[in-house]
């Protein structure tokens, strides 16, 4: 039985749903950003992306709960730690597999997903954690904006702008985009493709860590929460187009809107069915996703 919510709602209710959809969608988009960059450049499906977000969550929690410092200080810590982990994984396990072993690389990332989640559980236990931030909400007219989600949106938007500028306005960024367009031609013109892979995987892992850090501002978390966000990220990335940054942003916002409005109008978890129906419909019309292609804005 469908929910009894009226189809037409007042402007205040619609605006509230719209705000919540944008806030949730921005988190989904940011979680998906590192995943789509890695695939766009390296064509590696990084299943460990979910575990990277978990490390980011616990980095913020460690700074706030154990060191008793501002949780905002944990955000750059999560990025730095995950960048190092990403580069280390790429150098020691993925790069030695060579260019043609994409299936083996996929399995390696699955192994790291299991290993990292297990290590986090052993270190911090499986007990759900939550930051004691004291965040409230801000009211504008009849619309309320949760403070934690707003901070997450601002950090995600600022970081995404920095990443876009880096990819389009720096020499290394243009080398990354050139490698995404054609790895062989990039090597012919003197780009160190191996080094670009190190930087790309590190960047993707750092973005996953940042996304995990921001999730702690929004909800409780445990070592397994990254798997739920990984599933959503895959839907967002395929929906927006593998390797497309603007596709990840648009796909994240679309999924966020569907979830918020679907949860309002439909009972239980039927919004998940609606998300998958939209996902299938888009792929039937455009199999490459909304903005399929290499890493580009």
UniProtKB/TrEMBL annotation:
Membrane topology (UniProt): Multi-pass membrane protein
UniProt-recorded Gene Ontology molecular function terms: transmembrane transporter activity
Keywords, alphabetical: Amino-acid transport, Cell membrane, Membrane, Transmembrane, Transmembrane helix, Transport
CDD domains according to UniProt: TM_PBP1_LivH_like (cd06582)
Localization (cell): Cell membrane
GO BP term, pick one: amino acid transport
GO CC terms of this entry: plasma membrane
Main location: membrane
Pfam assignment, any one: BPD_transp_2
TM annotation in the entry: 12-40, 47-67, 73-94, 106-128, 148-167, 198-218, 224-242, 273-293
Domain of life: Archaea
InterPro entries in the record: ABC_transp_permease, BCAA_transport_permease
Sequence similarity: Belongs to the binding-protein-dependent transport system permease family. LivHM subfamily.
Protein name: Branched-chain amino acid ABC transporter permease
């Amino acid at each position: 039985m469908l929910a009894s919510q009226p189809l037409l709602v007042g402007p205040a209710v619609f605006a509230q749903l719209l705000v919540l959809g944008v806030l949730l969608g921005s988190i989904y988009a940011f979680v998906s950003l590192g995943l789509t960059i890695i695939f766009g450049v390296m064509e590696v499906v990084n299943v460990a992306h979910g575990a990277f977000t978990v490390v980011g969550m616990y980095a913020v929690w460690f700074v706030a709960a154990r060191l008793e410092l501002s949780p905002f200080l944990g955000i750059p810590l999560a990025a730095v730690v995950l960048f190092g982990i990403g580069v280390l994984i790429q150098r020691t396990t993925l790069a030695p597999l060579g260019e043609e072993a994409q299936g083996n690389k996929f399995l390696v990332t699955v192994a790291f997903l299991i290993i990292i989640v297990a290590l986090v559980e052993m270190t911090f236990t499986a007990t759900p954690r939550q930051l004691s931030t004291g965040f409230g909400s801000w009211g504008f007219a009849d619309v309320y904006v949760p403070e934690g989600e707003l901070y997450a949106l601002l950090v995600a938007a600022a970081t995404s702008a920095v990443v876009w500028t880096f990819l389009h306005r720096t020499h290394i960024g243009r080398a990354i985009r050139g490698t995404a367009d054609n790895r062989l031609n990039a090597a012919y013109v003197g780009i160190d493709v191996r080094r670009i892979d190190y930087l790309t995987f590190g960047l993707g892992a750092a973005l996953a860590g940042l996304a995990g850090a921001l999730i702690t501002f929004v909800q409780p978390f445990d070592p397994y929460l990254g798997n739920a966000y990984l599933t959503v990220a895959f839907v967002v990335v395929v929906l927006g187009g593998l390797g497309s940054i603007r596709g990840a942003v648009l796909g994240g916002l679309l999924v966020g809107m569907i979830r918020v409005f679907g949860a309002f109008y439909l009972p239980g978890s039927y919004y998940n069915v609606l998300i998958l129906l939209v996902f299938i419909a888009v792929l039937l019309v455009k199999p490459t996703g909304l903005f399929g292609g290499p890493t580009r804005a």
